[in-house]
Design goal:
The structure holds two protein chains of two kinds.
Chain A: H1 3-16, H2 23-28, H3 32-43, E1 47-48, H4 49-64, E2 67-68, H5 70-90, E3 94-97, E4 102-105, H6 109-115
Antiparallel strand pairs in A: 1-4, 3-4
Helix pairs in contact in A: 3-4, 4-5
Chain B: E1 9-13, E2 19-24, H1 25-32, H2 48-54, E3 59-63, H3 65-82, E4 84-91, H4 94-110, E5 112-119, E6 131-134, H5 139-143, E7 144-149, E8 159-167, E9 170-176, H6 179-193
Parallel strand pairs in B: 4-5, 5-6
Antiparallel strand pairs in B: 1-2, 3-9, 4-7, 7-8, 8-9
Classes of the chains: A mainly alpha, B alpha+beta.
């Protein structure tokens, strides 16, 4: 799987207003956290909140050339729990169990992944 | 899960499994393989302090010379910046100290640091002015790479590294900026190798 292709797809759709992209998904992807989360979930949707936060915090640090601290990680976890995952759940991309903090694939995932250049 | 076209990152957890930190592998590489510049010529873009606190109190089981040099340079830089306090450094060979003499000479002459240098084998030259040098110390000084800076009066910048050469060029040990640990090490060095 290719980060660059994913990023290019998003950028292209931003410019062209591509119809193939469901607008609800597109809106969620306006934040960096959400893009990194979707990128990780396209790879493997069955994760815990904390595992997803590990990836998002680490990927953010890598992309920005900084060091992620435990406070950064906690902030990412909170944003994923309160904002990103409920939205992804509402669009049918994943199922988010808020009390157990676990994530599973939902029916729309395949279609959305394909539209985002995130297949295989 | 590194992306195929991204460098990936390192994630550190503590013993309880809690997140300690994360850093991109490309950034980690840059921090751990610095050119060895003296402290007053440090490239400000390379933040060795960041990596230091990130991996502080970390036991390492396999580090190479470049990595130890990066940490050593950070400790020397703190000593230079603080400008006072006691710096104790061990050199496995006289040649290794000769390479660093220019740096330690400036520590001794341009700061209020007390500099104590222990050389495992024989130092042929005169003792450099301002540096309290003991040679032919042998023993553990021959086997360990160490630098210990007590941080001066405030101990704010106290830091130390101790590493044992397990195989040629491969070290294990720890580094720390925990003042208690540094004080302990400094006291040991003073008791064992202090001026008699």
């Amino acid at each position: 799987m290719d980060w660059h292709r994913f990023e290019t797809t998003i950028a292209r759709q931003q410019l062209a207003g591509d119809e193939s992209m469901p607008s609800d998904v597109f809106e969620i992807l306006s934040t960096e956290d959400a893009r990194y989360a979707v990128y990780a979930l396209a790879h493997d949707p069955n994760r815990t909140l904390s595992q997803l936060a590990d990836f998002v915090a680490g990927f953010t640090a890598m992309r920005s050339g900084t060091i992620a601290t435990p406070a950064d990680h906690e902030n990412v976890r909170i944003r994923l729990h309160h904002a990103v995952l409920p939205k992804l759940d509402a669009t049918g991309y994943v199922t988010y169990d808020r009390s157990n903090q676990t994530i599973e694939a939902a029916p729309r995932q395949e279609t959305v992944n394909a539209a985002l250049g995130l297949r295989g | 899960m590194p992306a195929s076209d991204e460098p990936g990152f390192l994630l550190v957890r503590d013993a309880a499994g809690d997140f300690r930190g994360a850093i991109g592998l490309d950034r980690l590489d840059a921090l751990l393989s610095p050119e060895h510049h003296p402290p007053w010529e440090l490239d400000e873009s390379v933040d060795t302090a960041a990596i230091f606190s990130f991996l502080d109190n970390t036991l390492f089981t396999s580090a190479n010379r470049g990595q130890l040099l990066a940490v050593t340079r950070e400790i020397e830089e703190r000593a230079w910046r603080t400008g006072a306090g006691r710096l104790v450094v061990g050199f496995q060979t006289a040649a290794a100290f000769a390479d660093q003499l220019r740096i330690y000479d400036r520590f001794a002459t341009e700061t209020d640091l007390t500099v104590r240098v222990l050389v495992a084998d024989e130092w042929d030259d005169d003792s450099p002015p301002g540096i309290d040098l003991a040679d032919e110390v042998g023993g553990e000084i021959d086997a360990f790479w160490f630098v210990c800076f007590d941080g001066g009066e405030t101990a704010l910048n106290a830091s130390a590294i101790v590493a044992e050469e397990r195989n040629p060029g491969q070290y294990r040990g720890f580094w720390t900026d925990d003042p208690d640990r540094v004080t302990e090490l400094a006291a040991y060095l003073e008791a064992t190798y202090g001026r008699r």
